């Protein structure tokens, strides 16, 4: 049984496909099931799952059998990134710095220096001489690319080595379709809501995205705002399915986004991530009678404190209908 984090990203999907190929080559009689926890959220991820025909079983429909080995990729147990922690995985393969509860895990390969778990899995396939199909090469390439495409790149020479090896083996037309999927109406509506509710504090954008229709929207908006040339920080929050999802970005290595977000949600929820990117979540039903406004106020105060920003009030990033200044 292959499992990953909630709302799996391309790195998680590709890592599962890679381990499936490894098991098929080395233990052909073992049945392998790929699972999805939550949903395939981002349009690109949905395109990847559709176009590469990744067979995913919803995790909630899987019963936990002690005779079935769980292999966890791109995540670790008890890091708040899974709907249920009922099964202890036999194997954990990951590249995140956020250490989970690893007691009882039989085999660990956790390499925080890698940009993607897909790089680690590509290494296994090469070492074990496992044939890599065009479909699998396409998945692994996109899994790595989607993790290391930001600037500055959080990629190691091993990630680049894997990309170079995978590129001639991948289907470039499929890749282009995965990178450029059609977007739903809600994507634009959420952007409008977020733009109207974004505030600038010194060099940080803090944005309330409102309720979102898919949970990755919050990180997509953080990726969008961090491109603003006047900011070094972008923090977005939005609600989805009883959770307040929070996403932080900084534009430099050494930004300690993970630490900033962990401090912000301390005692309220969970968070984890890297220097430049981090994500977190707070369960909205455990707010002890606090309103959403109160919660957002607490978070804003803590984040500004973490960033040593003393400004009490931010400026709304945009007027309702801004006048675009002449160049
Ligand atoms: Mn990953």
Radius of gyration: 20 Å
Helix content: 25-40%
Mean pLDDT over all positions? 93
Low-confidence stretches: none
Shape: globular
Query: How would you sum up the major sheet?
Result: 7 strands, mixed
Query: Strand tally, please?
Result: 13
- CATH topology name of the largest domain: inorganic pyrophosphatase (n-terminal core)
Question: How many domains, in number, for the residues?
Answer: 2
Spatial strand arrangement across the major sheet: 11-12-10-9-8-7-13
Q: What proportion of the residues form beta strands (DSSP E)? A: 15-25%
How far do the termini sit from each other? 57 Å
Output the CATH homologous superfamily of the largest domain. inorganic pyrophosphatase (n-terminal core)
Count helical runs: 10
Bound molecules: manganese (II) ion
Task: Give a quick rundown of the structure.
With about 325 residues, this protein is α/β, with parallel strands linked by helices. It has ten helices and 13 strands.
Can you put this structure into words, describing what you see?
This protein is of the alpha/beta class. It has two domains: 2-179, inorganic pyrophosphatase (n-terminal core); 186-316, Diaminopimelate Epimerase, Chain A, domain 1. Helices cover 35% and strands 18% of the residues. The chain is built from ten helices and 13 strands. The protein has helices at 10-26, 43-51, 117-127, 134-148, 157-166, 172-179, 185-196, 217-225, 257-264, 292-306; strands at residues 2-3, 35-36, 57-58, 71-73, 91-94, 107-110, 198-201, 204-211, 233-240, 243-250, 270-273, 277-283, 315-316. A seven-stranded mixed sheet has the order 11-12-10-9-8-7-13, with helices on both faces. A four-stranded parallel sheet has the order 1-4-5-6, covered by helices on one side. Helix 1 runs parallel beside helix 3, helix 3 packs antiparallel against helix 4 and helix 9 (257-264) crosses helix 10 (292-306). The longest helix is centred in the N-terminal third of the chain and has 17 residues, at 10-26. The protein is globular. The mean pLDDT is 93. Manganese (II) ion (MN) is lined by residues 11, 74, 95, 116-117, 147.
């Amino acid at each position: 049984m292959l499992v990953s984090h909630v709302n799996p990203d391309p790195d998680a999907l590709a890592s599962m496909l890679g381990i499936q190929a490894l098991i098929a080559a080395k233990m052909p009689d073992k049945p392998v099931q790929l699972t999805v926890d939550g949903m395939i959220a981002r349009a690109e991820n949905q395109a990847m799952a559709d176009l590469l025909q990744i067979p995913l079983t919803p995790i909630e429909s899987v019963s936990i059998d002690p005779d079935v080995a769980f292999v966890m990729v791109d995540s670790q147990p008890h890091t708040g990134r899974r709907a249920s922690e009922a099964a202890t995985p036999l194997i954990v393969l990951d590249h995140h710095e956020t250490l989970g509860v690893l007691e009882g895990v039989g085999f660990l390969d956790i390499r925080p220096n890698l940009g993607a778990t897909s790089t680690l899995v590509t290494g296994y396939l090469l070492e074990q001489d496992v044939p890599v199909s065009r479909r699998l090469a396409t998945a692994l390439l996109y899994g790595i690319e989607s993790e290391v495409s930001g600037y500055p790149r959080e990629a190691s020479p091993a990630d680049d080595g894997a990309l170079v090896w995978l590129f001639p083996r991948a289907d470039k037309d499929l890749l282009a379709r995965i990178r450029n999927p059609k977007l739903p109406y809600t994507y634009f509506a959420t952007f409008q809501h977020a733009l109207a509710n974004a505030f600038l504090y010194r060099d940080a954008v803090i944005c309330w995205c409102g309720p979102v229709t898919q949970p990755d929207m919050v990180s997509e908006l953080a990726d969008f705002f961090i491109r603003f040339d006047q900011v070094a920080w972008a923090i977005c929050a939005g609600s989805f399915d009883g959770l307040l999802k929070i996403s932080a970005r900084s534009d430099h290595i050494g930004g300690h986004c993970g630490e900033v977000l962990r401090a912000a949600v301390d005692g309220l929820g969970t968070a984890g991530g890297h220097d430049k990117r981090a994500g977190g979540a707070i369960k909205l039903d455990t707010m002890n009678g606090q309103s959403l406004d109160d919660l957002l106020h607490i978070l804003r105060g803590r984040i500004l404190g973490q960033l040593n920003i003393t400004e009490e009030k931010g400026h709304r990033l945009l007027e309702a209908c801004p006048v675009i200044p002449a160049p």
